[in-house]
Amino acid sequence: MLEQARQRTQEFQTRLRDAKTDIALITDESSIAYLAGFWGYLSIEFGRPTFLIVRPGEAPVVIPPAMESEMVSAMTWIDDVRTWEDSGPDRWENVLSRALGDDVKEIGIEAAALPAIVRNWFQDQRPGTGLTNISGFLGAMRMVKSPEEIHVMRQAGEIAGAMMSAAEGALAEGAPEYEAALAVINAGTRKAAGFLTARGWESFISPMIHNLQVMQSGRDTSMVHRRASVKLLEKGDPVYFCFCNMAQFKQYKLGFDRMFFIKEISDEAARVQQAAIDAQQAAIAAIRPGVTAQSIAEAADEVYAERGYTTGYRTGRSIGMSYLETPELKAGDSTILRPGMTFAVDGGISVDGKLGGRIGDSIVVTETGCDYLTTYPREILTVNH
What we know:
Blueprint: H1 2-18, E1 24-26, H2 29-36, E2 51-54, E3 61-63, H3 69-75, E4 80-81, H4 92-100, E5 106-109, H5 116-125, E6 130-133, H6 135-143, H7 147-170, H8 177-193, E7 214-217, E8 238-242, E9 248-249, E10 252-253, E11 257-262, H9 267-286, H10 293-307, E12 316-318, E13 325-329, E14 342-351, E15 355-365, E16 370-372, E17 381-383
Parallel strand pairs: 1-5, 3-4, 5-6, 11-17
Antiparallel strand pairs: 1-2, 2-3, 7-8, 8-11, 9-10, 12-13, 12-14, 14-15, 15-16
Helix pairs in contact: 1-2, 7-8, 9-10
């Protein structure tokens, strides 16, 4: 993984040089992981930014918070690690300013990912420094995955499958939602642990599945992203699991969704769920190199229309080290699909206040079509225990 990160940084430096961009300041956590091979746990939500400075032809510089510097130094391939402290002369503003230098007139940034506190600092303290959006450079690089990346994403798919199997096994009439969520966490953690060793770079990778479980049942399935609760499952309940913020491994994130029904399913619920499944399958059948991203959405929309439904959802999104990369499978996105692109592809219908129909898988585009990264039955799923 670290050698790949080094090679990506070299390609990024070449792109910067070709665009006559002298320096790039990277602040997005997934982009830092992509280039430097590390990630921390003190994100900007704690007021503690991490910076990666990349110049063409020069060694890159990493600037993490002091309390994470030892771990960062052990994880990254980059030698120049300069830490900052919460107070005193080595606050992040001072360390960053020294690393950038006084003569910099223009800096490349990922505009949408630049933290507000950093943007405000530039405006207040370095108003003469121009900020140029270079998001497209990394976006283009991250769009097509390497064989090594796809291998990791397949492992993430196996982890997701273990999680979904545990979810189904924990469902029963009278059981609380949170018990299924706990089963998901335990199964995913144990499966991930089987792919890891306690040596070298991998020793810093946690197998823990720790994000909140998106899960809802009954009428609440129309809400899409409610969390697991203490609600007791009832006979006939639809139960929806979304692993989009849980199905991940070594920072690579998948989309994966399934709907189950407790012992029985109503005719209306069956129609809605089957329409969602058929729309997703139509989209997946349309995926191949050379077609546009929006054409995949059109294939799904045709099914929705035939069944009398409309949906405001996109059909899918590019996935990788971020939950949302480029392109998206939606109207207006004319990006041409290429082998090695990876997507979460969904079928989704909401009947407000009543129910929903949902299914989601992750795929990789191949030379002739696509392969699944996630595996679980793609049919109406009824639980009888």
